[in-house]
Amino acid sequence: MTNSSFHPLRKILESRIAIIDGAMGTTIRTYGMKESDIRGERFQDSKKDLLNNGDLFSLTQPEMICDIHRRFLEAGADIIETNTFGATSISQSEFFVDDPREHGGRKDPAFYQKIIDDPFLGDLAWEINEKSTRQCREWADRVAFATGRQRFVAGAIGPLTVSLSNSPDADDPGFRVVTFDQVKTAYAQQIRALMAGGSDLLLVETIFDSLNAKAALVAIREVFDEEGKELPVMISAAVGRGGETMISAQTVEAFWNAMQHVRPLSIGLNCSLGPDLMYPFLSELSEKSDVAISCYPNAGLPNPLSPTGFDLEPEDMARYLGDFAKGGLINIAGGCCGNTPEHIAAIAKALEGQPPRSLEKAVSAEEAEVLSGESKA
Predict the structure, then answer these.
(1) What is the pTM assigned to this prediction?
(2) Longest dimension (CA), the chain
(3) What is the DSSP letter of 20?
(4) What is the rounded average pLDDT of the residues 85-112?
(5) Mean pLDDT in the chain?
(6) Would you kindly state where each structural domain of the chain is located, as residue ranges?
(7) Nearest-5° angle of CA 326, CA 327, CA 333?
(8) CATH numeric code, 8-376
């Protein structure tokens, strides 16, 4: 999508393994926030519960969100993600719009067109994305200045609460609740706000449905063309125990084949599985791909009896990610659900001095692309 060879992060990936931050939601829970905390004065009259709408904390509890960014940066993160995983009008509608299914109706393209056209949801999505990015930007720059080491802000683009690839109606397999253009429009608004706030990168992550990801990537391309500015793009999928994306059921190789035309800065796997279960799929992706590889798995599988909701402790994650590095599989490493700043600190320490996966194949592919373009010209 954009030639990332000269981006400063690319230079880092050639020399060492970069660290990405951990789980915002997990870390928020350690602050003991209640429903009244996320509502504040602004949303005190909301009809639905908001506590699971973690992105909203960027507006109502910015001090906490900034403190979390600070802690991840001080733990060693080179890349911190904006608190915008669900910051689209489509995802925010789950918290602010009545569900028509509760009144005998259904969610369909007509319903989601109203969501796309709703000025409240559009303005809210923009505000969350822009303010969250500015919060990240401030702390990335502060810590970079204090340590003399550049830090990067990744605009986080989540998978949405709807799917383009399958029907929720077993009796109507051709039915889709939303259209490609509606998903693309929601993503485009998010992308513009992430760029306006000062993102260094865009991260399309936790991909369950590759068609949703395609809509995000088309939106990115269109926004880049309209703005006359491009950012490197990172792509990361969530896979099940068989190694397929959860909804579109693409194998790791098929997923790479569907995404490689974008020429992302990196492609990888996150969430869904613990690091032990993720290893063979990451190994396959590393073998097939000619760009940098990222990996930030969950801290094992869910465990409601654990303080973080997941089994693995910091030293466990450090050991597993260290094995990935020894296998020559990764250029970017971190943690998803269950990973606190303490987990990221342990991972960063374990990977210090470990060589990154070689990017020679990626350089060759980019050179070939440049030469191909020159010959056509």
Answers:
(1) 0.93
(2) 62
(3) B
(4) 96
(5) 93
(6) 8-376
(7) 75
(8) 3.20.20.330
Q: Which two tokens stand for residue 361?
A: 């194949």
The encoded tokens of residue 185 equal 């429009």
81: its two tokens? 């993600």
The runs of H, that is alpha helices, within 148-231 are: 180-197, 210-227
288/188 Cα distance (integer angstroms):
30
Count how many Cα atoms sit within 13 Å of the Cα of residue 194 in the half-sphere of its side chain: 34
Q: Residue 120 to residues 101, 123, 176: CA-CA distances in angstroms?
A: 22, 5, 25
Residue 43: CB atoms within 10 A of its CB come to 18
**Contact of 333 with 296, CB cutoff 8 Å:** yes
pLDDT surpasses 50 at 376: no
Q: Given pLDDT bands bounded at 50, 70 and 90, which one contains residue 247? A: confident
Residue (of 63, 73, 68, 72) closest to 146 by Cα position: 73
Q: What pLDDT sits at residue 5? A: 58
CB 294 within 8 A of CB 330: yes
For tokens 């001080």, name the residue.
74
Among 169, 174, 177, 261, CA closest to 212: 177
Read off the tokens for 333: 């490493």
**Residue recorded with tokens 């960014």:** 69
Instruction: State the DSSP H helix or E strand holding residue 295, giving kind and residue range, or none if neither.
Output: strand 292-297
- How far the first Cα of the chain sits from its last, in Å, is 18
